[in-house]
Amino acid sequence: MKRHRLDHIIFGIVMAFIVVYLGSIMISGLEQMFQESGAIDETTASISGRRSRTSWLIAICLNIITINYFKRIYWLEAQRGALVGTFAAAMIWFYNFYPYLLN
Q1: What are the residue boundaries of the structural domains of the chain, listed by start?
Q2: DSSP calls for 32-53
Q3: pTM for this one?
Q4: Is the pLDDT of residue 44 over 80?
Q5: Does residue 53 contact residue 14 with C-beta atoms inside 8 Å?
């Protein structure tokens, strides 16, 4: 079976970071929309740090969709790259929010 020209580990890593970036933009847009509509009131403003950590973690977890898509179309090398990219994004998240996790 001939491999597709995009079925490479580098393509999977790039796609993983693109999904995390676009997912974080989408989630922050939803958060801003809820704040403007009044669904998130001013009393929860004190947990904005926790909200930021959770938003980024949800954006990282959106890579599950990318990994499953690559599995469905049999791009196994791209799937492997998406897994590596997801792991790298999770380690970056852990490094950035490590001090807050100990409190």
Answers
A1: 9-101
A2: HHHHHHTSS-GGGGGGHHHHHH
A3: 0.85
A4: no
A5: no
